[in-house]
């Protein structure tokens, strides 16, 4: 009995895996039948559209506010610093690649925010931005904001931005695709 | 034994290689344990902020459980996972540790949903298939599991290869060059080499497309062809590990190679060498034809692929699987 069940499950599983590889939305709906959410993967790695470039997350902070208005001034911020994690990799990553968690997290957060922004038709502006609430309450945004806040302990406000880096004949060209709101933080402990 | 594994050996090799991959993943997690603490990218007080209701019922249950699980208990869970994976190196045929590693891996995948990649999924697929093969405790179940692993591997490579063949960026070699230049998956040395010698990038891209698309012929091909194809596959994965940092793909995908060798031997025994050779030639010809069709009719196929990409993106939601 166990044998028949095992053979039947394996047969049905393979058939479903083959079907979800087809480029049709209906075929992919079969994934709803996967109890774990990971047993019917799409195997089209880096295809048809490979990775197009990199993301760089930059952040800056303010150590004081404008006395009169209790607001931060653009000129009073630190320089933009890059959030570490997506720096060049080591050859040793071929064996043990501990940086993949941080790298993939930053990449996933940046991808999700830029995608959501395009979906919402939101355009970044130069100064302090006010992204839609739905974006500011999303997990990728909160993760980056929390990370940046933690790195700027003692500051009164922080902001991050996401740059998209494209490559053309070896030359990197970047543009700012997203600018977060300026977030006030409780000075001293870095908590928002 | 390595080149002529029987059913038991094929399943045991697969389990052991996945166990090594699992241990490498846990070691990596230990090395970046700061990401598990406050304000880390894997801090559950943050990543658990999502609604516990997710697409699957086990996913919802696991998320709810993690909300109540203290950090120390999670560390204990990872230690249990490491012990179970180490046990698989010694007792690869025992269903209990395989089941334990499967359950713990699903839990960790649910918890670290933002950092999942194809190697995590392939390892899970291999381990679940091996578990089903061992549960039956007879030759039929073992044969079914080994055949499944071989077919799954062939399907995975074929899906990746034909998807690349439909892409103009892969056909022109641009894809390889762009990937090599990125900080995320590239290496400066390789990037410079490809930039200075674009033909190398194009040749590498076409080699990957051809090898992945035609890998399914190894199911019935003569032994020297199979060994050559699998050696190329091993080289491909080691290359991806060094250049792109996809180190765990080596363990996850090579885990299925003994199953492919075993299934190939069974198919050739069943059909006879001559018939198997004929089938191989026809399959290879059809594969080449499919690559040519994908190359010649890119517009229609790209539209289909783009539609599929959009659907997949919608389906993925916040999982952010980039591969």
Task: Provide a concise account of the structure shown.
The complex is a heterodimer of chains A (192) and B (323). With 192 residues, chain A is an alpha+beta fold.
Architecture overview:
By secondary structure, chain A is of the alpha+beta class. Chain A has 2 domains: 1-48, no CATH class; 53-188, no CATH class. Chain A contains 5 helices and 5 strands, in the order H-H-E-E-H-H-H-E-E-E. Chain A has helices at residues 2-20, 25-28, 100-120, 133-136, 139-151; strands spanning 53-62, 81-82, 157-168, 171-179, 183-184. In chain A, strands 1, 2, 3, 4 and 5 form a 5-stranded antiparallel β-sheet that branches. In chain A, helix 3 (100-120) crosses helix 5 (139-151). Chain A is elongated. The N and C termini of chain A lie far apart (58 Å). In chain A, 37% of the residues are buried. The model of chain A has no long low-confidence stretch (mean pLDDT 85). With 323 residues, chain B is mostly helical. Chain B has 16 helices and no strands. Chain B has helices spanning 7-31, 44-47, 57-68, 71-90, 95-111, 118-135, 139-165, 168-172, 174-181, 188-196, 198-214, 223-244, 247-254, 257-271, 273-296, 298-316. Mean pLDDT of chain B is 88; it is low at 315-323. At the A-B interface, helix 1, strand 1, helix 3 and helix 5 of A face helix 1, helix 3, helix 5, helix 6 and helix 7 of B.
Structural class of chain A: alpha+beta
Mean model confidence by pLDDT of chain A: 85
The helix/strand series of chain B, from N terminus to C terminus, equals: HHHHHHHHHHHHHHHH
Please state roughly what percent of the residues of chain A sit in beta strands, choosing from under 5%, 5-15%, 15-25%, 25-35%, 35-45% or over 45%. Answer: 15-25%
Topology diagram in text:
The complex is a heterodimer of chains A (192) and B (323).
Chain A lengths: L1 H19 L4 H4 L24 E10 L18 E2 L17 H21 L12 H4 L2 H13 L5 E12 L2 E9 L3 E2 L8
Antiparallel strand pairs in A: 1-2, 1-3, 3-4, 3-5
Helix pairs in contact in A: 3-5
Chain B lengths: L6 H25 L12 H4 L9 H12 L2 H20 L4 H17 L6 H18 L3 H27 L2 H5 L1 H8 L6 H9 L1 H17 L8 H22 L2 H8 L2 H15 L1 H24 L1 H19 L7
């Amino acid at each position: 009995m166990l044998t028949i069940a095992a053979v039947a499950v394996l047969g049905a599983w393979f058939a479903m895996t083959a079907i979800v590889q087809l480029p049709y939305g209906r075929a992919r709906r079969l994934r709803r039948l996967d109890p774990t959410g990971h047993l019917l993967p799409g195997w089209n790695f880096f295809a048809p559209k490979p990775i197009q470039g990199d993301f760089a997350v930059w952040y800056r902070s303010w150590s004081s506010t404008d006395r009169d208005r209790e607001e931060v001034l653009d000129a009073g911020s630190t320089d933009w610093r890059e959030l570490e994690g997506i720096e060049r990799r080591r050859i040793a990553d071929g064996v043990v690649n501990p940086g993949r968690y941080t790298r993939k997290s930053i990449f996933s957060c940046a991808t999700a925010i830029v995608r959501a922004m395009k979906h919402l038709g939101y355009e970044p502006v130069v100064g302090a931005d006010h992204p839609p609430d739905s974006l500011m309450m999303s997990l990728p945004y909160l993760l980056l904001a929390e990370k940046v806040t933690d790195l700027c302990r003692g500051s009164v406000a922080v902001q991050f931005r996401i740059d998209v880096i494209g490559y053309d004949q070896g030359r990197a060209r970047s543009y700012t695709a997203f600018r977060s709101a300026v977030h006030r933080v409780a000075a001293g402990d870095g908590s928002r | 034994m390595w080149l002529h594994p029987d059913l038991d050996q094929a399943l045991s090799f697969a389990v052991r290689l996945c166990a090594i991959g699992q241990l490498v993943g846990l070691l990596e997690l230990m090395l970046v344990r700061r990401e598990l603490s406050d304000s880390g990218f894997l801090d559950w007080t943050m990543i658990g902020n999502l609604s516990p209701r997710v697409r699957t019922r086990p996913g919802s249950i696991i998320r709810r459980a993690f909300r109540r699980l203290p950090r120390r208990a999670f560390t204990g869970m990872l230690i249990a996972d490491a012990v179970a994976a180490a046990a698989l190196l010694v007792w690869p045929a025992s269903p209990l540790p395989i089941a334990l590693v499967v359950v713990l891996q699903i839990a960790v995948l649910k918890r670290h949903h933002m950092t999942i990649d194809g190697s995590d999924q392939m390892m899970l697929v291999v381990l679940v298939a091996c578990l089903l093969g061992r549960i039956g405790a007879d030759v039929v179940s073992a044969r079914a599991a080994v055949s499944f692993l071989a077919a799954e591997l062939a399907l995975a490579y074929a899906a990746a290869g034909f998807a690349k063949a439909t892409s103009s960026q892969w056909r022109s070699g641009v894809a390889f060059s762009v990937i090599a230049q990125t900080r995320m998956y590239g290496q400066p040395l390789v990037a410079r080499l490809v930039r200075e010698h674009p033909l190398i990038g194009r040749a590498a891209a076409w080699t990957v497309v051809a090898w992945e698309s035609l890998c399914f012929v190894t199911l019935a091909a003569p032994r020297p062809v199979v060994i050559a194809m699998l050696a190329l596959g091993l080289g491909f994965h080691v290359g991806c590990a060094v250049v792109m940092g996809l180190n765990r793909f080596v363990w996850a995908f090579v885990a299925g190679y003994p199953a492919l060798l075993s299934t190939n031997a069974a198919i050739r025994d069943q059909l006879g060498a001559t018939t198997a050779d004929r089938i191989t030639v026809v399959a290879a010809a059809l594969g080449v034809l499919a690559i040519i069709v994908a190359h010649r009719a890119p517009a229609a196929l790209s539209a289909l692929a783009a539609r599929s990409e959009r659907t997949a993106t919608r389906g993925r939601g916040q999982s952010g699987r980039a591969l």
